[in-house]
Write a structure and sequence with these properties.
Number of domains of chain A: 1
Structural class of chain A: alpha+beta
CATH class of chain A: Alpha Beta
Order of helices and strands of chain A: EEHEEEEEHEEHHEEEHEEHEH
Largest interface: A-B, 74 and 75 residues
Number of strands of chain A: 15
Oligomer: homodimer
Shape of chain A: globular
Chain lengths: 335, 335
C-alpha cells in the first residue's frame, strides 16, 4: 500500500510508493562523467591562471596567490548567476517585483586531487573544507545587501556539475530564498506553539527508535528523513541546538568531518558513485531565528526523475522507504 | 546584469542570468527516445489486452471495451503511485503525520498514432483530449476522499516519460498538494487585499504590453511568465475568470484546442522536439476559491538542469529572459 507522509518542516506531503521499485540495485545510476584531461582542468594545481583570481586559499607559507601550493582554493565563478557590482534598484513593474541580481557566486575547490572520492579524501581535508565554508559565509555575510548564503555541491553531470574536479559552490543572495523562508516560517510557527525547536524534536524522535539513523557520533546524527522526497535522501544535523553553521567550533568540525566522510562514503559504495546534490541550510545572517532554526546538511542522490507531477504539485513520489534506505546505508561497510 | 524577479503567485524569486547562455540554439535538447516496436506498445490499437482495463474510452459505436475502435482511451496506471482501495487511516507518529496512499493514478492515451506530434494531431483530437480531461476530473472528484485532481504530461525520457506513445497522466490525491495550496493561499491573500483575482491582473498586464505574449485567440492567451523559472516556460490561461477547468464549455474547448496545438507546435519546431512537462492547475473540487483562483496550464521545456542551488533554495536560475523566449516563440511559423 502506498503511503502519504508529511514533511513537518516544509509542510509538504510525499508519496512513498515502494511497489514501483524496491531494491538498491533498482536505483544504481553511476556517474558517467569522464574525468577529462587534468592538464586542461582549471581546478588542478598549476592551472590557477585558467580561473578568476582566488578570494580565499589555504596554502603553504611562502607560496604565491593564484599559483600552486594550496589545499583549498575559493574563486569567483567564471559564469556567475549573481554579481557584486551595482545597486539592488528594487522596483515594481505593474504587479511584479524586480531587483538587480546583486550577490556573489563562488567555487570552492576541494583539494588538489582531480580524482578524489569520499574514500580518498582524508578526514583532515574534510575539516579544511568545513573551515572554508565557514570563512566564506562569515565574509559574505558582511555585505549588508546579502540576506542569505547557501553552500551546495553538485556531483556528477546528472546532478548539474559541469566540471569533474571535486568542488562546492557558494551563492550569496539579496533575498531569503523561498525554501529557507518556508523552513524558518514553519519552524517559528512550531516554536510559537510548543516553545521547542522542531529540528530538536526530530533529533529526539529519530534517536529514540533508530529506524532511520544512518550514523551517529558525539555531535551529529545522519538520518533519512521520515518524509524523504528521494531514495537515500540523508540529512546531517547537530544533536545540540545551533542555528548557525558558521558558529561551529573545533570539536564540532572534527565530528562533522567524520560524519560527512562516513555518510558520503556509504552512499558512494552502496550506490556505486551516484550523482548527488548536497546543500547546507544555515540561519540567515540577520534573522531572529536563534531559538527555532537549526542548521543541517541535506544530501540527495539523484536517482529518480522529477517530472510533471512533481513540478505541478510539489508532491514527490519516492519509490523507497527511508527506513529501508537507512538500513542499507547502516549496513554498508566502509573499506 | 543578472536580474531577480518575483513570481507573484508562488512568491518565489527567480534569477534571470542571460550571460550564462542566450540563444535558442544553446538550449536545444532534442528528445532522444527511440519509438520502439509498435507491436509491443501497450498504448497502440490492437494491444489493449496489455494494459489494465479502460475506465473511459471515446470509441466508435459497436466496438467493444478494451478492444480497438477508440480515439481516446483512459486506463489505470499499471504502476500506480496511489490506489483507490482502503481507508485513509490518518494518524500521527510522534511529531509526524501519516495517511495511507489512497487515490487514483490513470493514463490517458492521446489517440491511436504512436508517432503523433503537435503538428500531426488535429485540432479535433486536441478537443477530444480536453473533453476527456474534463470527464476524468469530474468523475474522480465524486470520491469524497479526493481533495485534488492533477493532469499532467511528460514528453520524452528526460521529462520523465517511460513510454513513447503520446499520453497524459491523471493523479487524484487525498490531500491538496503544496504547490496548489501555495497558489490558492497567495491568490486569496491578494484577493483579500485588492478584491481582484491576481491571475486576471496578470492577464490584463500581459495583454497590455504584449512583450511576453506567445499567442492569443478569443478565449485564451499563451505567455511566458514574468518570473519564468525555465527557458521557454509558457502558460495558457483563459482571458475571462474561471476557477475550474472542468466548467469549460464547447466554445472554450475549441479555442483551447487551437491554443494548445499552436503553442506545442511552436515549441516543437523552435526547440526541435524538446522534452517537456505540461501541468493543468484547476481549483480543488471542494474549495471556496471561486473568486480568486483561475485555472491555467503550465508548460516547461526541460532544457536546464535542476541542481543543488535550486533544491536547496527553491530559487531557480533561468538563463533566458521570458521576453526573448516569447519573441522567439511568436516568430516561429507553424508549417
Amino acid at each position: 500500500m502506498p503511503e502519504l507522509r508529511k514533511d513537518p518542516i516544509l509542510k509538504r506531503w510525499v508519496i512513498i510508493a515502494t511497489e514501483r521499485a524496491s531494491r538498491p540495485n533498482d536505483f544504481k545510476q553511476k556517474v558517467q562523467d569522464q574525468p577529462g584531461d587534468v592538464s586542461k582542468c582549471p581546478f588542478c594545481p598549476g592551472n590557477e591562471y585558467m580561473t578568476p583570481p582566488e578570494v580565499l586559499a589555504y596554502r603553504n607559507p611562502g607560496t604565491i596567490a593564484n599559483g600552486p601550493g594550496w589545499w583549498i582554493r575559493v574563486i569567483n565563478n567564471k559564469f556567475p548567476a549573481l554579481k557584486p557590482e551595482g545597486d539592488l534598484d528594487k522596483k515594481g513593474i505593474g504587479i511584479y517585483d524586480f531587483m538587480n541580481g546583486v550577490g556573489y557566486h563562488e567555487v570552492l575547490i576541494e583539494g588538489e586531487d582531480h580524482f578524489a572520492t569520499p574514500l580518498t579524501v582524508t578526514k583532515e581535508l574534510y575539516m579544511e573544507i568545513i573551515w572554508a565554508y565557514r570563512d566564506r559565509i562569515i565574509e559574505l555575510s558582511k555585505d549588508q545587501r546579502i540576506k542569505y548564503v547557501i553552500i551546495f555541491k553538485n556531483h556528477g553531470k546528472d546532478a548539474g556539475a559541469s566540471l569533474f574536479h571535486p568542488h562546492s559552490q557558494i551563492i550569496a543572495t539579496p533575498i531569503i530564498p523561498s525554501v529557507i523562508k518556508n523552513e524558518i516560517d514553519n519552524a517559528k510557527e512550531y516554536y510559537d506553539l510548543r516553545d521547542r525547536c522542531i529540528f530538536c524534536d526530530i533529533v529526539t524522535q529519530e534517536r529514540g527508535h533508530q529506524d532511520r539513523i544512518v550514523f551517529e557520533n558525539n555531535s551529529f546524527i545522519a538520518f533519512c528523513p521520515f518524509a524523504s522526497a528521494f531514495p537515500f535522501e540523508t540529512w546531517i544535523i547537530p544533536k545540540k541546538h545551533y542555528h548557525r553553521f558558521e558558529d561551529i567550533d573545533k570539536n564540532h568540525v572534527v565530528d562533522l568531518a567524520e560524519t560527512m566522510k562516513t555518510v558520503l562514503s556509504k552512499i558512494y559504495l552502496l550506490l556505486d558513485n551516484p550523482p548527488y546534490n548536497m546543500m547546507l541550510h544555515t540561519a540567515p545572517p540577520n534573522s531572529n531565528s536563534k531559538e527555532y532554526f537549526h542548521w543541517h546538511i541535506e544530501i540527495i542522490p539523484r536517482l529518480t526523475k522529477v517530472a510533471g507531477f512533481e513540478w505541478g504539485t510539489g508532491t514527490y513520489i519516492n519509490p523507497m522507504t527511508p527506513e529501508m534506505a537507512a538500513a542499507e546505508l547502516r549496513k554498508q561497510q566502509i573499506q
